[in-house]
Amino acid sequence: MIKAVIFDMDGLMFGTEKLALEGWLKASRQLNYPITEETVEMIRGKNENDSKKIFNTLFGKTVNYDKAKTIKDKYILDTVETYGVPIKKGLLELIKYLKEKNIKMAVATSTAEEKAKKLLELAQINNYFECCTFGDRVRKGKPNPEIYIKTMTQLKVLPNECVLLEDSPNGVIGGHSAGIKVFLVPDLSAPTQEIKEMASYICSDLLKAKESIEKLI
């Protein structure tokens, strides 16, 4: 029987990975930087520090990461403030079900605290979660398992007492390393065979994930 469910945020709860891709490509056009979809895929699920290191490795001093990120972040914020947070199919049904069953919920996201809190508040779901662990509050980002270990400590649960919902390969690797059952709900890219083997469940959306989680409670 599980006692807690840990949620990733971007790409899992919200369709913000698509907005991030659009934002990075906008920055690429605006600044004439060689940022491509492949570049964005490399940093998906990683925190800001690790993403910056990847940019520096790829581009050196030819690309100002902070300048491009500012354009990307503004694009996302402007979009969600205008059109609302794009909530993924099945999220509201799942969190309401878990609340009814008194299952603890937490967020473990690579996104920095200020931005993540803003999105959770705009989506009006922040009060569902017992705790949140943010990308700028851990020393090592995904795929390192630190963020999940820290979240489990806050929830006071063991790996076999919780499940993790993730959309990115880096998240799946980190959750698997932490010893947690991982529900993979793919977003922008199809998982490789290696990632599929690390996931305990692969679901097309959060409604399907809810059906599987119900059997574990």
From TrEMBL:
Q: Which UniProt keywords apply?
A: Hydrolase
Read off the InterPro entries from this record: HAD-like_sf, HAD-SF_hydro_IA, HAD_2, HAD_sf, PGP-like_dom2
Pfam families in alphabetical order: HAD_2
The record's SUPFAM superfamilies line, in alphabetical order, gives: HAD-like
Name one molecular function that GO assigns to this entry: hydrolase activity
Q: Does the keyword rRNA-binding apply?
A: no
**UniProt-listed Gene3D superfamilies:** HAD superfamily/HAD-like, Putative phosphatase, domain 2
Q: What is this protein called?
A: HAD superfamily hydrolase (TIGR01509 family)
